Amino acid sequence: MEQQLSGRQNTILKLVVQEYVRTGRAVGSKALTERYQLGVSSATVRNEMGELEYRDYLHHPYTSAGRVPTDHGYRYYVEYLLGDPYLPVSEQMMIRRQFRQVEMQIESWIKLAAAVLADACGNVSLVTPPRSRVERLRHFELISLREQVALLILVTQSGAVHESILHLTEPVEQSTLSALSRQLNTEVRDFRHTQIARAADAAAGLPALVLRQIAEALQSREQQSQSEIHHEGLDRALQQPEFSRGAGAQHLLELLRGGAILSALLPQLELMEDVQIFIGSENRSADLHGFGVVIASYGASDEITGYVGVLGPTRMPYGRSISMVRYLAQVLSDLLRGVYQAGPEAVR
Amino acid sequence: MEQQLSGRQNTILKLVVQEYVRTGRAVGSKALTERYQLGVSSATVRNEMGELEYRDYLHHPYTSAGRVPTDHGYRYYVEYLLGDPYLPVSEQMMIRRQFRQVEMQIESWIKLAAAVLADACGNVSLVTPPRSRVERLRHFELISLREQVALLILVTQSGAVHESILHLTEPVEQSTLSALSRQLNTEVRDFRHTQIARAADAAAGLPALVLRQIAEALQSREQQSQSEIHHEGLDRALQQPEFSRGAGAQHLLELLRGGAILSALLPQLELMEDVQIFIGSENRSADLHGFGVVIASYGASDEITGYVGVLGPTRMPYGRSISMVRYLAQVLSDLLRGVYQAGPEAVR
DNA sequence: GATTAGCACTCACGGGGCAAGAGTGCTAAT
DNA sequence: ATTAGCACTCTTGCCCCGTGAGTGCTAATC
């Protein structure tokens, strides 16, 4: 699709989209000429609108109401009429400041990003924690809780921490556990769950028990990375007229429950630099038709990535969402790179 | 308040509550006599209802509609008409089985409990993780992520795991970090954050940095324990007629956002064995008027406790909620005791 | 004295009708 | 190519009113 409309058509389409996004009601030719100085009469606008409708940029809800953008119209708007929406520097500063004030902890960053994003866009924000497709063991620790129960804590190469409870077949001292973990740590370091499972099969007794649980934890970690998602701003989103009535609200809630949205979204996402936008029926999953998604991946490297995005009705503020999502992805990436990747000062 | 109604009044009040909870619509004398074999005419029921209304057990929404229980009426119902609602053994088995299938991990237990509870009661379930009012350090670990960045993982006496990122002032080897943690661990074991902060002041350089961050983490842990809450079942709850229209839904969502509900709820909770019930205006916080809360504390000891409960409109199934909450509190306590507390086999 | 049948009355609820308002499409004039 | 004018359409909000469920009261009955 190229930019294929006349200057005046561009202006009108742009105004229709903006007005409709703002008010939520179909916008008519008269209202448009009254509110903005277009220099032409409503009849002319009407003719142009007719053309835009014929070309599937606009749509008539019913015979005589105003116009509403089609998915195609939104797409054209996003592509050609939006310009490059970068976030004003003042807002960038505000956001950076908030991140500086929060604890040095990935979870806190995610929560903050979700809160900021939802607040700025008035819709549901989505943030997944940065995860690696392949998890390798970096280090684990065994801490005795009581005679036959120990806490297993493991850290993966990607820096994720996982804890689980280990039931022992017989009482074991903390010193024994420490010695065991010191020894095993050197043996299975950097292993994937499959390799550790194999090592467990080769071992017996306590070491086998421990290794098996580590393998399980690593595996569940890899699987879970496809289903964990944090969202915020449901309250704001449910105020949107699209969701205030029963059916729409229900649809949104189902999408958000248990990470159902991730399985709908993931197949269509590509790992790329910039923000990705899906408008209504552009979404592969039918569950997402009627929704707009603005999403970007972030991360410290190709290995460790997460997503940050906004989910709203098709009628959502794409410009603002894009600039916010883009900037937050950048902030999160910067923070992560500060943690995981050799930065400039480490290059030397 | 004693049981102060006649047998027939008891029967009628009970039926009104049950019918109203079921249908959500005010229940009239005629409908009651038609649906149930009361052995008396609707006029008699009407007279009794009038008496119940005079005594503030029932309420007239408007001049001529059916009756609706007052908060006082619900209270009487819960206190005297409910019997002892224990969960059928078959359901107990079902629930236990689900807990056996899930990972050995406190977070998984909490999520499962919330899901089961919300599903069974058709309302929002609330579960807080088990936390200790006072957190002492049990063990910490330093893991080098890159030259000047390390991951700090600490485990508290109550078994909570906390991770945060530590920025170093100069490059430090993993071996150095390991040695440092081995040494410091013995020094500050079982300390509270205040004591560790003091130790940090006495130290200098890297040890001081590490200790300070540990103190911070412990402190934030103690504070956070008052605000962390997991909830489930929003979708079901929002289908309730009380919440389907704008105002009610908004109110519920605000309550649930950012753990606002905990600050409303905590002041009125007591640490006791059994389920606590708050009906409408019985709630201390005005934000909770119009809501019903059924909640219990669970835990391995007096030190380590969390809450599990149900939040719904005043018109909620108290019987079912009570039995579910009571049983889930028991299950969670059992699981926790299995982890933390010396069990019977350790007594000898 | 408690219960019930009967009756007049009340009030929410839902559907039909109606006027207002916003918008369209077409035509003819500019 | 643009615009003024006009007839027409269709939603929206409102009022009105019939319906039905329910009440309170009274008088008759057990």
Would you mind describing this structure in some detail?
The structure is a homodimer of 348-residue chains. Chain A has 15 helices and eleven strands. The first copy, chain A, is an alpha+beta fold and 348 residues long. In chain A, the strands form three sheets. In chain A, strands 3, 4, 8, 9, 10 and 11 form a six-stranded antiparallel sheet that branches. In chain A, α1 packs across α3. The first copy, chain A, is elongated. The C terminus of chain A is likely disordered. At the A-B interface, β5, β6, β7, α12 and α14 of A face β5, β6, β7, α10 and α12 of B. The structure holds a DNA duplex (30 and 30 nucleotides).
Provide the gyration radius of chain A in Å: 26 Å
Most extensive chain contact? A-B, 44 and 44 residues
For the sheet with most strands of chain A, the description reads: 6 strands, antiparallel
Structural class of chain A: alpha+beta
Percentage of residues in helical conformation of chain A? 40-55%
Quaternary state reads: homodimer
How many E strands of chain A? 11
Shape, per Cα inertia axes of chain A: elongated
Query: What is the average of the pLDDT values of chain A?
Result: 91
Task: Give the N-terminus to C-terminus distance of chain A in angstroms.
Answer: 46 Å
H-E string of chain A = HHHEEHHHEEEEEHHHEHHHHEEEHH
Return residue spans of chain A where pLDDT drops below 50 for at least 5 consecutive residues: 343-348
Please give the count of helices of chain A: 15
Q: Roughly what fraction of the amino acids of chain A lie in strands?
A: 15-25%
